[in-house]
Amino acid sequence: MNNEAAMVLEDTVSFCERDGLDARLIQMLKQCVPIDLTDDSLQIEAPSRFAYSYLMRHRETLERYLAEITFSSMSLQVTVAMARGSEDSRETAAPIRGVAAEPSRAGEPAVPDAPDPGAGTVAAGMARVAIPPIDLSGTGSRKVTITNTISPRELARLRGNMHQQTGERGAAEDVRRGTAAADGGNEAPSAAAERDNGATSKFTFENFVHGNENKHAYSSALRFAAMADEPGSCTSLFIYGKSGLGKTHLLLAIKNLLAQDKPYLRVKYVNSQTYIDDYITGLQEGRVAAAMRDYHNADILIIDDIQNIIGKTQSIENFFQLMDEFIRNNKKVAIASDRAPKNLGMDERLTSRFNAGMLCLVSEPSYEMKLTILKRYYETTILPASAPGRERSGGNALLDAIRQGTGRLTDEHLSHMAQVSGTNIRELESFCERCAGESFEAEQEGRELTGDEIDRIANEYFDSAHKKIHIDTVQKVVEEFYHVSHADLIGPRRTADIKNARHVAVYLALEMCEMTMSAVGASFGGRDHSTVVNSIRVVEKRLKADRTFIDDLQTLRNKIRLRS
Q: Which helix (H) or strand (E) holds 526?
């Protein structure tokens, strides 16, 4: 089972539960088996064709969650489990909603799938095909046939792809079984396979966009991975910050780098829900020690979203014991949370341990970093995917046509997008995809994407989108935070505390208010362009050297947004 695919599937289930989606959909997702996670798709195996059909009806919602979880546009590919006695046999589901692969049987009623609201009139020359009858009761008495249409040529092509994929999976399974037999039944992937998985994963240090807001966490994670096999060095890494800022990416980057460069280390990577499930399952079955063996045997333990474990009374004591063991044995642990150790209510010794180790805050991205993220994602992901003549979907002309429907985003577009967008990096990249698609639609009409259209899209993604922030609000918040008067902030006095507050206020005003440098300078006692530039330089230099200052700036941003 692909570990990253399993984690993404678990997160998708959590998102469905969070938003209160249909319980039947959630249950079907829980019964699915994660198969593979690539740069642009998640492949899962549905337990039945009925489950497959139901999942396809909610495909758009699920793919939206996938984009939010993985920071990129992702497609959901679903395969269907075949007969129970043939565990390795799967039927590849067509990536087009409602497509089936076999003719219906005579004498059995056809029950059509739910109509696709986007479907048009079926053209002449299309062949009727159907999914074979499905026994839903297990008794053979209730059967359902789902009928849809597809062109004979497309059907032949899909069948060819299906047979090719089935053959490739069968060959891979034979190799895996042969290796397992040679190793005495141990089916763990080889070191070479682990290195390949780490090298091809999208969650790498090379793919992580870092700036002042997350540079400390990035460099600390890289150092933790580099010194993972050195006893006594960098024994703990604790990354904290709000959801969607890249904590999971960094933890996965550590895992993947270790799998690639140091496969001899035993690395256990889990999210909090997997840890809780493992512990509770062991508790219910009376075999806690066996269920938690992999955790205790690991050289490197990596746990994501630890706050969920701390909040569960059933598993918290076991977690404290595990951490205590790692402390005593000088083993290494990397953890991510939505808050700092001191705010988690952990044992004082653990809090002290994490505070003494590499403790890293990941802050919300500023305008400059959002612009960097958007520009990089547009240039490295969206543009290459839409390049003419590139094979991207196994020859599927329909999907190729959709992906080529990408319009141009200028520097002005990207700058405007950074100004009106929120701070969740997962949403930023999905937002960029959407704007590129809207730009394509505009180009088909012979015009260019407008700022008002970007604002409209942003309002669908971000609660704070296009929120107007007045410079008076910025000045008032900074004055209260640093305990200086308004007259001093905009006046000529140059004591150290006043200069510091003035530099910060100028920096935040330029970042958060839609104003030019000249306009910002004028609002601070008629100062000129060069004075504003100097304030920016002072703040940026301090950001590189002072971690506490980064926290202060983020606190000020939050206060300003709340008052706007």
A: none
Q: Which residue spans within 288-340 are E strands per DSSP? A: 300-304, 332-337
Single-letter residue type at 23: A
Q: Is the dihedral of CA 405, 410, 414, 417 positive or negative?
A: negative
CA–CA distances in Å: residue 342 to residues 238, 304, 339, 553: 12, 17, 8, 21
**What is the Cα–Cα distance from 371 to 428, expressed in whole angstroms?**
10
In terms of Cα–Cα distance, which of 67, 78, 5, 61 is closest to 36? 5
| 407-453 tens-digit pLDDT | 789 988 998 888 888 878 878 888 998 899 899 888 988 899 998 89
Give the strand pairing for 127-130 and 147-150.
antiparallel
| Structure tokens that stand for 386 in this block | 């839409």
Output DSSP code: residue 365: P
> What is d(CA 371, CA 343) in angstroms, rounded to the nearest whole number?
32
Question: What is the distance between the alpha carbons of residues 56 and 114, in angstroms, rounded to a whole number?
Answer: 10
The whole-angstrom separation of Cα 153 and Cα 159 is 10
Based on its alpha-carbon atoms, the radius of gyration of the chain, rounded to whole angstroms, reads 27
Tell me: pLDDT of 111 over 80: no
Please report the sign of the dihedral spanned by the C-alpha atoms of residue 320, residue 325, residue 330, residue 332: negative
Name the region of 446 (left: φ>0; alpha: ψ -120 to 50; beta: rest). left
Alpha-carbon gap, residue 39 to 4, rounded angstroms: 11
Higher pLDDT, 246 or 191: 246
Q: Which two three-digit tokens encode residue 27?
A: 């249950």
- Exposure string of 405-431, with b = 16+ CB inside 10 Å and e = fewer, is ebbebeeebbebbbbbbbbbbbbbbbb
Token couple for 416: 């405007």
> Measuring CA to CA, which residue among 277, 352, 355 is closest to residue 309?
277
Neighbours of 330 (CB within 10 A): 9
pLDDT digits (tens, 9 = 90+) for 367-413: 788 888 898 888 887 887 665 554 444 444 444 444 455 678 998 89
Amino acid at 305: D
Cα separation values, 151 from 217, 392, 456, Å: 53, 22, 38
Question: What is the 3-class SS of 238-261, one letter each residue?
Answer: EEECCCCCCHHHHHHHHHHHHHHH
pLDDT in tens, 274-319: 888 888 888 888 888 888 888 888 899 999 988 888 766 666 777 8
* CA-based torsion, 28, 249, 168, 399: positive or negative: positive
pTM value? 0.51
Q: How does the average pLDDT of the chain come out, rounded?
A: 75
Q: How many helices (H) and strands (E) does the chain have?
A: 26, 13
What does DSSP say about strands 134-135 and 143-144: parallel, antiparallel, or unpaired?
antiparallel
Residues 54/23, Cβ–Cβ less than 8 Å: no
In angstroms, how far apart are the furthest CA atoms of the chain? 92
Beta bridge partners of 147: 130
